[in-house]
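Lab notebook, entry 437. We have the chain sequence and a SMILES string for zinc ion, and the next step in the workflow is to get a structural model of the bound complex before anyone spends time on docking refinements. Request logged below.

Task: model protein plus zinc ion, output structure tokens.
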Amino acid sequence: MVNDTTRLLGLDGLAVVGVASDTDVPVVHLVTADEQARHCPDCGTRARRSKGRRVTRPRDLPVGGRRAQLVWTKRRWRCDEPACRRRTFTESVPAVPPRKRLTSRLRAAAGAVVADAGRTVVQAARDHAVSWPVVAAAFTGHARAVLPAQPEPVQVLGIDETRRGRPRWVLDEAAGVWQTTVDRWHVGFVDLSGRQGLLGQVEGRTAQAVIDWLDGRDQAWRDTVRFVAIDMCTIFKSAVRRALPQATLVVDHFHLVQLANQTLTEVRRRVTVTHRGRRGRKGNREWELRNRLTRSAARMRGEHVDALLDELAGLPKMIGAPVTAAWHAKEDLLDLLATARTHPDREEVRDLLYRFYRRCADADLPELERLATTVETWWPEILAFLHTGITNAGSEGTNRVIKTVARDAYGFRNPVNQRLRTRTATTRKARGHLDPR
Ligand SMILES: [Zn+2]
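Result returned:
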């Protein structure tokens, strides 16, 4: 009964009785080859009386790279069981479920390429010649089946936020200020010690949302977490303190360097506006030097650093003095971080920290005061980074994938779908889909 063509097509419960290939699309004629199909789906009684035939044309995956037209001639049967309410039924097999016009494997393949192969729903729909809702539903089914319900325990947890969509503002006419109307965020939890990738996301950037997610894990999972890497965000700090009291908080020096450069830029912009009455532009030396200012002196040649300082000294005093002070404060902080990482000699680190605070205090600039206060507030967490070397870079990498998925999809209307898509995209490595073998 089972011929080679049937074996090649590989649709369980269906047998090929002929292939007509005189048209562009080969037509494959099928009959039912599953004894179970003759049993009533309600009561299970084997039917004896046929009520005629039906022809269906389920769509399937390409065969040998070509799309084929399946034509399945199936029977309708009468159920003779007196107690059964169903009078008649049509044959169905698991490969083509009842009332479905697609084979199960076509549906599964369309969902799998979205979850595991980085395809968008639109492209998967084009590739498989099915509609967008079909692929979206197939993806959801696939994702729910392959994603673990609960994450495995992690020792180092990363918490980071990503903006969901674009923020929107309206002008408050009475007050004359712009008010934020839409500002949507996702907070992600990342496995930084293992390979699990993104463990989950919650909507909203509040301490309660973070606590709720952490409380959703069992006690053993929470007890396993030893370190939590965050950026300098007080919301995460207070949430972790409450939900994971035993964990050590770590702040990456990357965020600190970024903050120091931002502070320097703020000082430069403010003094330019104050002194020149407008924003910086070509012809203003401090504006032209803006990229050189934020470069680390340790990565510049000595003569270039000297030249930079000479240029700053040549600027009008109102501009040159504060920018130079901010540059020195930034460099002091970088020195401190570099020293603390390479030879963590307590005394030396303390001296450098003191020098940095002193510099900020002497400059008498509000921006530097704020920077010094931030460093002071977060010093225990910065020190934890200097001792452990744990960085939040894994979270940042995950964020890049999250953003790529959102851009490829031209944004998401539904945050639940977005989280599911993001989760499948960021756990592909853990699920073995990036492995060339
Ligand atoms: Zn029946």
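Notes for the group: The CA atoms of residues 44 and 116 lie 38 Å apart. Worth checking against the assay data. Residues 40, 42-43, 45, 79, 81, 84, 86 surround zinc ion (CB under 6 Å).
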